[in-house]
Amino acid sequence: MTTARYDTLRVIRNEAGFATLILNRPDRNNTLSNELRGEMVAACAELEADPDVRVLILTGAGRAFTAGMDLDEWRTSDKLAAGAYENDPVAALQSFSGPVIGAINGIAVTGGLEIALACDLLVASTQARFADTHAQVGLLPGWGGSVRMARLIGLNRAKELALTGRFLGAEEALAWGLVNHLVPPEQLMAKAESIAQQMAAAVPETLKAYKRLLDDESALPLVDALALERRASLDNNSSVSGEAIDARVAAMVAARKRVKEQAGR
Question: Mean pLDDT in the chain?
Fold first, then answer.
């Protein structure tokens, strides 16, 4: 498959079934210019169309994950909110049907925090810091950040973060449940890639279906979520043969044995 060339992003494919999307404006702390957001929309669509890419890692080049919107464009643009509602980067990530792992290498501020919150899970460097400064500059989030933040860390903590604008350090972010894993900077990508490789080893269509099921259930009351799971289970599991399960179990055991052997070298 032909890979498009981008000016503000880098895309690296791994033969294990995942790709890494790197926000690549390190001299500007990977701020979200309209060009970058447009390329992000295009890149996510390209990766979604590639059957060899089942998991996506998102990270930033240099010292920042992303510092949010490009304020230079905000000052000079005649578009509503500097075109913030065009080329929506969160919608771009959601257009990728497989899991999205955020590898947070540095600051994730305001719009950058919204993008981090749109990932399915976060691996953070000990140098990562998170902040929501919308209120401090007179803005309100528009990419779903307020909703996802409250659901992920709880309403009271979300209010503290949103209304003070303070930075949340990496260890506190782990304690609050904002991030799944915290590692030294030099181990960040290895940890994210290890998780991506484990996910990419799942049955491709089931990987996407299970992610979709979890997302759909999270928006429902308990009784409705249980009913949705039962319907999905009946639809899916009735078409899976015992022979297929046996073959997949054997492949899973063999893969784990190889990983263990490699780790012991």
Answer: 92
